[in-house]
């Protein structure tokens, strides 16, 4: 098994691409889903966030108001770094658990949907392949304004909080260009899936696990024969 890191930018179409992979039966780990989970009441990160940002970011039911928190971190880079420092260790632990689950189940590759893959760089060294869902800047801005009902200033602030898509494009091994018609992007995604499925990049880990298993059997056999 090998890992595929998939990233993009806000309103670039990453979620739609991920859904194509899910429909194909691929193993997908969504960092955003995990991030939502680890900040729920009762989890350690929740209490650290409330301590750092105050009770003003809480809803009446005690859960974190993601919109209020988002307004803070999208306009204050230091606050954004603080939130990442609080949540990222817990997110990585949960991602590792899921990777091990898919390894046991025998998947050839696992997609890790990580929005900040290139910003934080922490997980990059574990990725055999990296993918960016790209769209041109004007398309990204228009889509974000329409999708979230934001003013141009608000949308530009959210886009500026991330590494520009053009820079991510230069860093990735595979580009899925979602600037135009969705059907074109879907076909690109299907071709990438075929390339990954046909890849032999899963073999080193499989062979390593097999060698480890054989070694354990050998040690046990020597123990009982002596």
CATH topology: Rossmann fold
CATH superfamily: P-loop containing nucleotide triphosphate hydrolases
Radius of gyration: 21 Å
Instruction: Give the number of domains.
Output: 1
| Overall mean confidence score, pLDDT | 87
Major β-sheet annotation: 5 strands, parallel
State the helical fraction. 55-70%
Count of runs of 4 or more consecutive helical residues: 11
Structural class: alpha/beta
Task: Note the beta-strand portion.
Answer: 5-15%
CATH architecture: 3-Layer(aba) Sandwich
Q: CATH top level?
A: Alpha Beta
Distance between the termini: 36 Å
Main sheet strand line-up: 2-3-1-4-5
Q: What sort of overall outline do the alpha carbons produce when their principal axes are compared?
A: globular
Organism: Monodelphis domestica (Gray short-tailed opossum)
GO cellular component, one term: cytoplasm
Pfam family, one: CoaE
GO biological process, one term: coenzyme A biosynthetic process
Please explain how this structure is put together.
One of its GO terms (molecular function) is dephospho-CoA kinase activity. It holds the Pfam family CoaE. One of its GO terms (biological process) is coenzyme A biosynthetic process. The protein is 61% helix and 12% strand. By secondary structure, the chain is α/β, with parallel strands linked by helices. The protein has a single domain (2-225), classed as Rossmann fold (3-Layer(aba) Sandwich), CATH 3.40.50. Residues 216-226 have low confidence and may be disordered.
């Amino acid at each position: 098994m090998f890992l595929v890191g998939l990233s993009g930018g806000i309103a670039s179409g990453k979620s739609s691409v991920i859904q194509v992979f899910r429909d194909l039966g691929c193993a997908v780990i969504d960092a955003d889903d995990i991030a939502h989970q680890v900040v729920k009441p009762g989890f350690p990160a929740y209490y650290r966030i409330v301590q750092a940002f105050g009770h003003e970011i809480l809803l009446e039911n005690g859960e974190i108001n993601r919109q209020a928190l988002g307004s803070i971190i999208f306009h204050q880079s230091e606050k954004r770094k603080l939130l990442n420092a609080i949540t990222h260790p817990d997110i990585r632990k949960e991602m590792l658990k899921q990777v091990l689950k898919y390894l046991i189940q025998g998947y050839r590759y696992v997609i890790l949907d990580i929005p900040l893959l290139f910003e934080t760089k922490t997980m990059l060294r574990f990725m055999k392949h990296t993918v960016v869902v790209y769209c041109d800047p004007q398309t990204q801005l228009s889509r974000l304004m329409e999708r979230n009902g934001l003013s141009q200033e608000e949308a530009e602030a959210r886009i500026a909080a991330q590494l520009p898509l053009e820079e991510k494009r230069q860093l990735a091994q595979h580009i899925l260009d979602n600037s135009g018609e969705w059907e074109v992007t879907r076909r690109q995604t299907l071709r990438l899936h075929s390339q990954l499925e046909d890849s032999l990049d899963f073999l080193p880990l499989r062979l390593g696990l097999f060698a480890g298993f054989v070694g354990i059997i050998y040690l046990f056999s020597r123990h009982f024969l002596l």
